[in-house]
Amino acid sequence: MTEAELSKTYDISRITVRKAIEILVEEGILIKKQGIGTFVAGKKLTRNMGVFMGFSQNCEANGQKPGTKLLSAALVGPVGSDEKNLGLGENEKVIVIRRLRLIDDLPVILEENHFSQKYAFLLGENLERSLYETLSEHGIQAYGGKRRVTVCYATAAEAETLGVKKGSALLLMKDICVSPDGEVIHTCKSLICPDRYELTINIMPEFVS
Question: At the fourth CATH level, which superfamily is domain 42-200?
Answer without folding.
Answer: Chorismate lyase-like (3.40.1410.10)
